[in-house]
Amino acid sequence: MLDAKAYLRIMRASAAYDLIVSLPFATPWTLPLVHTVLVWLGGALGLPGQLPPIDPMSMLLGNLMGSVVVVWSVARLRLGLAVLGRYDAVARFLFAAWQINALLNGLSLAILPLLIIEIAFGIVQLLPISEEKRLSLLDEQSVNVGAHS
């Protein structure tokens, strides 16, 4: 069981990680650089699987994903609400499911570290919080105050 302060630190750490990792996906100028690094990493380590070239649809979807995750990261960092960590855990398990599907369909194992981090942050953000009821009330008050300002 985590205390409230530890939980919020973990939630913010996951948001900071997402911001750093997702920002390069958010633009059509930086996504090809990420792609090149992943292709190089897979080749240098002799990892099985492939990373196909980026076509216009892959670029669009990668940029959309990166943009949404960047905004979601900033919201979690800025608002610091525990409930956002719970929602983030669900999103992480969805991302992990799609990453596993991609790996099973031949994507390079170069994404395996990202998958492991998704699952780890997902699990930790679902752990019970010792002061969850009080924290939930504080979240609600913060949202209500923010809505009226």
Automatic annotation (TrEMBL):
It comes from the Bacteria. Keywords: Membrane, Transmembrane, Transmembrane helix. The chain crosses the membrane at residues 21-45, 57-75, 110-129. This is Uncharacterized protein. It comes from Devosia equisanguinis.
